[in-house]
Structures are given as C-alpha cells and as structure tokens.
Amino acid sequence: MAKQKRNTKGKIIAAAWELFYEQGYEDTTVEEIIDRSGTSKGSFYHYFDGKDALLSSLSYLFDEEYARLQQELDPDMDAWDKLLHLNRALFAMIDSRISMELLARLLSSQLITKGNKHLLDHDRLYFKYLRQIVREGQERGQLTRALTANEIVKLYALTERSLMYDWCLCGGEYSLTAYAEKMMPMFLGELRAEK
User: Fold this and answer.
1) To 5 degrees, how large is the angle CA 167–CA 168–CA 169?
2) pTM given for the model
3) Full domain range(s) for residue 31
4) Residues 83, 112: one domain?
5) Rounded Cα gap, residues 55 and 45, in angstroms
6) Around Cβ 113, how many Cβ atoms within 10 Å?
7) What are 192's strand-pairing partners?
8) Do residues 139 and 84 share a domain?
9) 20, 27, 110, 192: least buried by Cβ within 10 Å?
10) According to the model, what pLDDT value does residue 2 have?
C-alpha cells in the first residue's frame, strides 16, 4: 500500500514537472497535471493543496533520479568518480527537464520557508546515498578522513546548491552540466585521499 501511494504521488509530481517544463508553470493547470499523471482529482488533493504545493516537490524528483542512478552505478566505482557522475547526471536532468525559472522559485522559497526545508532534509535519499558513498570511499582510502562523512556530504550539497543558485542568478545563460564538469573537481579536489 505504501509503495502504491508513493507511485501515485510520484506520477503526479513527474507529470507536473514535465508540464511545467513544456508549457511553463503559469500555463499549467491542475486538471492537466491530473490528466497527464493518469490519477484522480481526489488523489491530487490528497497529496497537494494546489499547484503551488508542487514547487517544493522538486527534491522528490531529484531523489527519484538518485534512486535510478543508484541502480545503474557500478558499486566498485571509485567514490570520487561516483560523486562527480551523480552531479553530472543530476545537472543534466535539470538542464533538460527543469526550467531555470522554476528552480529559482524553489531556491527562493527555501530561503523564506519556516520549518521543513525540503532541500535540507537529511532523511532524503539524496543525503542517505551520499553518506553511503562517502563512508565507503573513506573506508577504501579514496576520500579524505580529515573530514567526517557528514562534513563531506554537507560540502558536496553546498557546492551543488551554489552552482544551481549561480545558474539561476545568471538567468541560465550557460549549461549547468558543462559548467559543473569544470568546477566540481576544483571545488571538491581536497576531498580526494592522498595517493
């Protein structure tokens, strides 16, 4: 039953963000989201108070991408390479499926939200998976032990948010994926263990 609820909520979120990207947030109606998701009006309002409530669901979409990536990554891949691969894949998803305006709206809403800030929820799959990768990388001697796993995860997440914020601030004038490919290794270079 819990999986069915997650699937219904996930269908609504995925449909909403597809429509937001295709036709813009303002031009997307709740009825179109319900139709695209193949769910019902009752299901929609069970999970969301309205269209605005979907803005905070972007973190759910990100976690769905991480769940997919978790299945495809080679468990023996170097932890450093895994972190960079995850960043590239997430940012490629943003470049191709998330409008800069909506990402900016999400980031700005997180600045004024009181209480639960979805992007900082450490119970999200995003943070759990990153902690797993970092701990394994430290155990294998691939990542530094000068910082705790939680400190490394925080630094990684901070770097990703910073790049997303800058991309929005610059009006999406460059490819987020291409820019991150250059910058992430520089920003996170000190995390690699000394060889």
Assistant:
1) 95
2) 0.80
3) 1-48
4) yes
5) 15
6) 13
7) 143
8) yes
9) 27
10) 47
